[in-house]
User: Which sequence fits this backbone?
């Protein structure tokens, strides 16, 4: 097994934990207080955050960490699948890099901008911050969706990933690319991401790289 695949395997496992953390924060901490999601009332968000901004800041840190693990996963899969799908893997790394930059921008802006807004109880500033960060996260998820679609396509054509895992990645990609237009897909996507992340981590760490498809199948 090559080292990049091993790094990518651990990154995928961390990604799975990140998505579990998002679900716990959304449903176990913020949801019961009525402030989960971008459409939560601004005054209620600030009131809850004034008591404890920790869940919001942890969510921002998780987003920032995903910007790293996403790229590591893309690099690992490029090494595993590039012989049979070199162009798709190059584009997947580019899409992951674009998504990574957007996830990082979202996390950093939220992490640094949210506490002073909470301290000032500035509703107008919060609404502006929320509009900016929501635009960034929607764009980031869209870019990640294309990454997952390319992984799925390459995995199916090269047989470099288990078939069912490739279909899970395909579903994750479709849901992610449509989530900006269908908000409920955002929640569904998080659940699907938990599945593929842990499964991909296992594959990269425990299963040797397989042979790629013949040259005529390359793209």
Assistant:
């Amino acid at each position: 097994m090559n080292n990049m695949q091993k790094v990518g395997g651990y990154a995928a496992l961390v990604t799975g934990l990140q998505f579990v953390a998002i679900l716990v924060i959304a449903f176990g901490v913020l949801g019961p207080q009525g402030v989960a999601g971008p459409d939560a009332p601004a005054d209620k968000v600030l009131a809850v955050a004034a008591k404890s901004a920790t869940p919001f800041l942890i969510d921002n840190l998780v987003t920032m960490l995903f910007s790293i693990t996403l790229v590591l996963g893309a690099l690992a899969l490029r090494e595993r699948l590039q012989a049979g799908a070199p162009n798709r893997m190059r584009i997947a790394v580019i899409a992951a890099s674009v998504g990574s930059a957007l996830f990082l921008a979202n996390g950093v802006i939220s992490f640094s901008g949210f506490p002073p807004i909470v301290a000032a109880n500035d509703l107008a500033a919060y609404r502006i911050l929320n509009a900016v960060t929501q635009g960034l996260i929607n764009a980031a998820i869209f870019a990640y969706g294309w990454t997952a679609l390319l992984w799925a396509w390459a995995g199916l054509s090269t047989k470099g990933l288990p078939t069912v895992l490739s279909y899970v990645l395909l579903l994750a990609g479709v849901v992610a690319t449509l989530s900006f237009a269908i908000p409920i897909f955002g929640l569904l996507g998080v659940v699907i991401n938990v599945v593929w992340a842990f499964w991909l981590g296992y594959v990269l760490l425990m299963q040797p790289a397989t042979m790629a498809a013949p040259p005529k199948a390359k793209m």
